[in-house]
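Homework help board

Subject: predicted structure for assignment chain

Our instructor gave us this sequence and asked us to write out the predicted structure in token form, then describe one feature. I got the tokens but I'm not sure how to describe them. Can anyone check?
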Amino acid sequence: MIAHVFGVVAEKFGSSIIVDVGGVGYEVNVPANDYDAVTINQEVKFFTYHHIREQSQELFGFSSLAGKKLFELLITVQGVGPKAALAILSLADA
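My token output:
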């Protein structure tokens, strides 16, 4: 499991950020407040949740550990997946 990524913001698009970590770009889906708070070429650290399914793998990132823990709690609710949990977290800070 990838617990966190620390590097430089290389790109921003949609609700994702690409973090360059030692020459490897990690695409991280982040809540709207974290997306708005970072700029390209800024050094960042995101606590991550690595979501693995049969057809895909996704990283969800949060600027605080509390945000990650709340995300993990939200996805345990029946009918709430990672994208919905991310949308909920985009409404306010954890």
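Reply (TA_rk): Your tokens look well-formed. For the description, you could write something like this. The chain is about 25% helix and 40% strand. That's the kind of observation they're looking for.
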